[in-house]
Amino acid sequence: MQFDENLIRNVVAQVMAEVGPMPPLSGDASAVSANTAPPSGSAAVGRNGVFTDVGEAVTAARHAFEEFSRFSMSQRNEVIAIIRRIAIEQCEELGLMEMEETGIGRPVHKIEKLKTLGELSPGTEFFSTQAFAGDKGLALIQRAPFGVIGAITPVTHSLPTITGNAVSMLAGGNAVVVNPHPSGKRVATEGVRRYNEAIHRELGIDNLICVISEPTLESANELFAHRDIALICVTGGPAVGRAALRSGKRAIVAGPGNPPVVVDETADLDLAAQSIIQGGAYDNNLLCIAEKEVFVVDSVFDQMMEAMQRAGAVKLDAAQIARLTEKAIVQVGEDNHDAACKDFIGRDAAVLAAAAGVNIPESVELVFGETDEDHPFVSVEQMMPFLPFVRARDVDHAIEMAKHAEHGFRHTAIIHSRNVRNMTKMGRALDTTLFVKNGPCMASLGLGGEGYLSFSIAGPTGEGVTSPVTFTRERRCSMIDALNVVGSPDVV
Ligand code: NAD
Questions:
Q1: How many other CB atoms are found less than 10 A from the CB of residue 335?
Q2: Could you tell me if 436 and 443 are in contact, meaning their C-beta atoms sit under 8 angstroms apart?
């Protein structure tokens, strides 16, 4: 999809002028609730899912869930169709609202992510009923909802994650309460308000998707602990994953990654370069699945660097990389470990280049350069469009370094190769949830490859790319000695 960024900026400026100011940034809860009904139980109808209090949100979602349980499957599909329609039709306005609020990523990709999730997130068609028939009758295996799910979403894709989660969770018959990242709370709140407002208007049910409009760590913990939260789904870094697993509830954890790329001597280097730029530069490297560091075998290393330049990336030299590292990598925590500097996360390649002391056109999507394997840009999940390239003796050395850089997250790994033995070796060694061969990272989510789309990839807890099935319980319904219509009539 092609977008003219200037045109989009102008359109959004006009739209923002027409819709007026966004919800308040912090503290002013009254501004959110001033024009709405009292916030508990069925009295919360008309709130359109927007709450400051976790208890009130969960109560409203619980009521919505009970009402939703009386809906037919075709009505459930209508609810999902409304979310899809808004995500697609309002992708420009909402995507740019997210860009304006978070200040990270690329406008064109903020828009595209919402549109694509609206189009491709799997719904109720994902379910199939399993049956066992035999001498003892018939058993049906069906998928049932959990109830109200508590979800935590990241700043990197605030409304997109809510949108994908909502489609999957509601397809499973659940309701959801979301505690978004504080830096993406306004677009999260506005998106949820729009989804509920339309669902309420068209189908008479409100608060199926609730959002905490002033989210904090305390409200996240309150959500985890609430007795009416049946299941937790968190999408974010290591701290929130640990917090969810400590909650004592079943948790689906879509955790951090640091996806390594290996390029061996059999690879199509031009295709590898184009793929690495497409994946590594998308939304300025904010995707958890995005290419973060590249290990290239020595015999094709220099050719690969040339292929990257041919494909449009700009190479930084050692002194420039050192200057960038000084600014973009900081030391944090009691152990003084390296981390990405917030001022550079999700910023354009031109901003990174400027920090390195080079002027490049704004149209450049990615900067890159040679580092050693111990460089902080290799070990840190940088989420910015600078990729370190490390020279490997051979493919075994490249795979060994890739495994080390992935930190055992078992999230995503990528190889460019025509040698199936090398692919197999790397697949086994890294043991990641997603393993991509000869394409950009997003091909593993059905965007240029096979499979379905989700923005919550649950590696640590093992559900993989989440789908409507992830958010359902298995139930078995058995009929004893009857309804197996195939067999001898004398046995019945
Ligand atoms: P983050 O970990 O800072 O925040 C994620 C969410 O968790 C936010 O809502 C935040 O408020 C909350 N949170 C953080 N610490 C918490 C705690 N101790 N208790 C309760 N809640 C807490 O991450 P981010 O910067 O928003 O997003 C980027 C991270 O998310 C990266 O590590 C990326 O890999 C990961 N991510 C993973 C997936 C996936 O599908 N596996 C998808 C997107 C992002």
A1: 6
A2: yes
Q: Which tens digits make up the pLDDT trace of 377-426?
A: 999 999 999 999 999 999 999 999 999 999 999 999 999 999 999 999 99
pLDDT at 32: 36
Ligand 1 lined by 147 (C-beta under 6 Å): no
What is the pLDDT averaged over residues 299-318? 98
239 C-beta closer than 6 A to ligand 1: yes
Closest atom of ligand 1 relative to the 255 alpha carbon = 41
Ligand 1 pocket check for 284: Cβ under 6 Å: no
The answer to whether 396 and 389 have CB atoms below 8 angstroms apart is no
Q: Is 20 exposed, middle or buried (0-12, 13-18, 19+ CB in 10 A)?
A: exposed
255-285 per-position pLDDT tens digit: 999 999 999 999 999 999 999 999 999 999 9
- Which helix H or strand E contains 10, and what residues bound it? helix 5-19
Backbone angles phi, psi at 408, to 5 degrees: 75, 15
Any ligand 1 atom below 6 A from CB of 94? no
CA–CA distance, 94 with 99 (Å, rounded to integer): 9
Q: What angle do CA 405, 375, 370 make, to 5 degrees?
A: 100
Q: Report the share of the chain in percent with pLDDT over 90.
A: 89
| Residue 456 CA, closest ligand 1 atom number | 40
- In order of their start, the domains of the chain are 5-255+466-474 (3.40.605.10), 260-448 (3.40.309.10)
Q: Cα(237) to centroid of ligand 1, in Å?
A: 4
Give first-to-last CA distance, the chain, whole Å.
60
Average pLDDT, rounded, for the chain: 93
CA distance 314 to 309: 6
Residue 316's SS3 state is coil
Euclidean distance between CA atoms 82 and 119, whole angstroms = 12
Q: Do the strands 386-392 and 293-297 form a parallel or antiparallel pair, or are they unpaired?
A: parallel
Tell whether the model's pLDDT for residue 342 goes beyond 80: yes
| Beta carbon of 456 within 6 Å of any ligand 1 atom | yes
